[in-house]
Amino acid sequence: MLNAEHMNPHVKTIAVLGTGIIGAPVARNLKKHSFVVRVWNRTRSKAEPLTLSGVDVFDTPQEAVRGADIVITLLKDGSTVLKVMESAAPGLSNGAIWIQMSTVGVAAIHDLARFAEQYGLIFYDAPVQGTRQPAEQGKLVILASGSEERSEVVKSVFDAIGQRTLWVADEPGISSRLKLALNAFVFALTHGTAETLVIAKALGVDPALVIEAITGGPLDSGYFQSKGAAILKGDFTASFSVENGVKDAQLVLDSLAGTGIHADLAEAGLARFLRAAKAGHVDKDIAASFLADV
């Protein structure tokens, strides 16, 4: 039986390295849009359910990328991305497109761009806004930087997994910087919501009244409503874990070294995430900022 690659030579083969909260739905949505999708995950059992969607699962990064036109990395941090790509290197095709979608920070993105140059890859720096639900719905926002050389091919990938692509720059790196600034905003909103509800509770006020007072007014937002509802329900199922909150908050602060900027909210937010982690909530959603002192 012929596979999709042989039936239609224009079908692109994509290797997704990392099938966590974002990676797994990205792989499914790419498959739905008729790409040939190959995946690898450090823990293979977590990737196996993707076979039900027609996605091929491989034991090593090298096997997953062999013959792939496009490689997508959705992994924990910059050092992990580099190690996985080094492992994949013998299977990489010269001229393949590498779309790096992990949040890796300023220093790491330069190392990854150098790796891409060394192996003849066309590199796109494309972190995303959005967590589990937007990823599942194909409604991520992609922050893309990279050459126009293969931008039409890359755009077809982004259209399959996102609702909007913001083209930031021609050179990789600016997108990763923008992602850090946006994460600082996300963390400020998260901690602001959590701490406001903590304060209400400490003052003997039903935290639900805070939600009711803000609903429909100028302070309201979808993000506030979703995190507020999760906190009130005590549902801290991770769409963005405290562990990743610690990592990304530290990346924000690291990126500001030498700028003279004192990011007071980012520093306080990192301290709050660290308290939540120390209290045993490391695998919970960042809304567990509410539990930082519990």
Q: Count up the helices.
A: 13
Q: What level of helicity do the residues show?
A: 40-55%
Provide the CATH architecture of the largest domain.
3-Layer(aba) Sandwich
Uncertain segments: 1-8
CATH 4th-level superfamily of the largest domain = NAD(P)-binding Rossmann-like Domain
Radius of gyration: 20 Å
Number of DSSP-assigned strands: 9
The domain tally reads: 2
Shape descriptor: globular
User: In the CATH hierarchy, what is the class of the largest domain?
Assistant: Alpha Beta
Q: Mean of residue pLDDT?
A: 95
Briefly note the CATH topology name of the largest domain.
Answer: Rossmann fold
Structural class, by secondary structure, is: alpha/beta
Major β-sheet annotation: 9 strands, mixed
Order of helices and strands: HEHEHEHEHEHEEHEHEHHHHH
How many angstroms separate the termini? 58 Å
Key traits:
single chain, 294 residues, N-(1-d-carboxylethyl)-l-norvaline Dehydrogenase, domain 2, 2 domains, disordered N terminus
